[in-house]
């Protein structure tokens, strides 16, 4: 194998490694954010949430120095399975967000009715 071919193979291996690590970091970040947001559904009071959020952070920080890619993939899969198993069945939805209690609360006006929004402006003509 020539030196150029060896360098190209090493660069491809490095690029594949970096791409896989970037994908893993993204999956961990998404999992952490989802789990943290779901913690708010289970802990309705802030003082309870802060403790649960701290415990969740400790669980993620305990494994942040793992370097083996296959072990990391396995841990991410286990974390996602655990999250899906313990996800809140009735999550809180902000009232004005899609699915919330106030989302599109006012029906659209019937056809043929013109609504003019002038908000207190008067015509002095």
TrEMBL record:
Membrane topology category = Peripheral membrane protein
- Which of UniProt's keywords are assigned here? Acetylation, Electron transport, Membrane, Mitochondrion, Mitochondrion inner membrane, Phosphoprotein, Respiratory chain, Transport
Principal location class:
mitochondrion
What Pfam families does its record include? Answer: Complex1_LYR
What GO biological process terms does the UniProt entry carry, in alphabetical order? mitochondrial electron transport, NADH to ubiquinone
**Subcellular localization, as worded in the UniProt entry:** Mitochondrion inner membrane
Which InterPro entries would you find in this protein's record? Answer: Complex1_LYR_dom, Complex1_LYR_NDUFB9_LYRM3, NDUFB9
Q: Is Iron-sulfur among this UniProt entry's keywords?
A: no
- Keyword flag Electron transport: yes
Any one Gene Ontology cellular component term annotated for this protein: mitochondrial inner membrane
Q: Which residues form the Complex 1 LYR protein domain?
A: 26-80
Its assembly, as annotated, is: Mammalian complex I is composed of 45 different subunits.
Summary of the function given for this chain in its UniProt record: Accessory subunit of the mitochondrial membrane respiratory chain NADH dehydrogenase (Complex I), that is believed to be not involved in catalysis. Complex I functions in the transfer of electrons from NADH to the respiratory chain. The immediate electron acceptor for the enzyme is believed to be ubiquinone.
Its family?
A: Belongs to the complex I LYR family.
Query: What is the name attached to this protein's record?
Result: NADH dehydrogenase [ubiquinone] 1 beta subcomplex subunit 9
Please tell me the species this chain comes from: Trapa incisa
């Amino acid at each position: 194998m020539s030196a150029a071919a060896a360098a190209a193979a090493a660069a491809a291996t490095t690029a594949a490694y970096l791409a896989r690590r970037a994908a893993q970091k993204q999956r961990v970040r998404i999992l952490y954010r989802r789990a943290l947001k779901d913690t708010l559904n289970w802990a309705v009071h802030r003082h309870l949430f802060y403790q649960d959020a701290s415990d969740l952070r400790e669980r993620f920080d305990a494994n942040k120095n793992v370097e083996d890619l296959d072990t990391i993939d396995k841990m991410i899969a286990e974390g996602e399975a655990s999250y899906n198993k313990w996800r809140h069945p009735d999550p809180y939805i902000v009232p004005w967000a899609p699915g919330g209690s106030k989302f599109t609360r006012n029906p659209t006006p019937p056809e043929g009715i013109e609504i003019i929004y002038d908000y207190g402006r008067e015509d002095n003509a």
